[in-house]
Amino acid sequence: MQTTTCQWTVATGWVWPATVAAPQLVLYFGATSRLEGEFTPVRELLARFPHAVVCGCSTAGEILGSRVFDDSVVAALIEFKSTSVRAVAESTPRDADCRAAAVRAARGLTAPDLRHVLMLSDGLSVNGTELVAGFRDALAPNVALTGGLAGDGSRFGTTLVGLGSDVRREQVVAVGLYGAGVCLSYSSCGGWEGFGPRRRITRSRGNQLLELDGQPALALYKRYLGDRAAGLPATGLLFPLELAQDVSGTEGLVRTILAVDEGSQSLTFAGDMPEGWYVRLMKATADQLVDGAAAAGRIAAQKLETAGSMLAIMVSCVGRRLVLGQRIEEELEAAMRSLPPAAEAIGFYSYGETCPAAGSGLSELHNQTMTLTVITERD
Predict the structure, then answer these.
(1) CB 133 within 8 A of CB 199
(2) Per the CB 3.0–4.6 Å rule, which of 6, 146, 240, 344 could disulfide with 373?
(3) Average pLDDT, the chain
């Protein structure tokens, strides 16, 4: 396996070495504005690598190595020795059955030698919990799912996902990696802590939270945020919710706000908010988030089966970026510290991350985590 990472900027265009031969897979992550229109950096990738699977999504920040960029496009050009690659795309219109779309995508990839699926999805039109559940329904138990939900900075306006020349909103792309030679390692860690009282979800609809303890959810959440409420939904990224099945739960899933609705006084999250479950506010310091990223790197490194050439795909939540501020690159350095020095890294800041959970081993939708997928091949 040979991997080359590169970047497109307004000033330079694409910069890649002449030695890149024929990658089977080209992954890209870029600013929404750079993926739209007839003449885009993606079109250049398609022209330069006509025989590759070319896919990617929009971001809330592009990751290349241990640096974060905006208004650019980054790409990884992956040339496998024995691994084969196939990709499919499915539409995910708002209010459609995204679980069924995920099942169709998974079935389109299914084969006896399928080893892993990398998923990139629209970040605004889907219920991430249902999307991941659909993939789990159709994939074999030994096939893990990792990836994330596309971003659009802190604007929450338009997210794009592309396969080939079809780059658009309301789409999910799934990439299958096949063969005995491919090796995968992955991990997902956060660093957030819960605080304040737990409140019961008394009314919800999928990923739309309507009432907490019988009170309108948005009004109650605004009371907690105080002056920060004027900046919703972006300021909600600083205070996600911890979701637990019972009031005494010691550890739960983290859920990030995607949208607010003043009319219904509701909050829309990246994943399900089941009635009868409990939520409480969460917070984190920059040091806690950097420590969480370091833990993700250590876990991924422990699972590596070979020390050859490798690509680390980092998907981190936009909320972490807002908390870390000027220290943002510290979490990337911390995540990569445990991996071999020659490992290439690419990724994006997202509206949700997908990775098997530490306890169950089942792929889940996460929020506010640093998630790593490390790809390499046996010699």
Answers:
(1) no
(2) 146
(3) 93
Domain count for the chain: 2
302 with 275, same domain: the answer is no
Same domain as 372, residue 258 = no
pLDDT at position 54 over 70: yes
- Within this chain, do residues 239 and 181 fall inside the same structural domain, yes or no? no
Among 241, 256, 283, where does a domain finish?
283
Query: Under 8 Å CB-to-CB from 47, ≥6 apart: which residues?
Result: none
CA angle centred on 369, ends 6 and 64, rounded to 5°: 10
pLDDT digits (tens, 9 = 90+) for 252-263: 788 888 889 999
Distances from the Cα of 158 to the Cα of 36, 152, 171, 315, 351, angstroms: 10, 6, 12, 18, 12
Q: Are residues 314 and 170 in the same domain?
A: yes
Q: Which domain holds residue 270?
A: 193-283
**Closest CA relative to residue 77, chosen from 20, 119, 14:** 20
Tell me the residue type at 227: D
Residue 251 pLDDT > 70: no
> How many of the other CB atoms lie within 10 Å of CB of 145?
24
Task: Please state the pTM of the whole predicted model.
Answer: 0.92
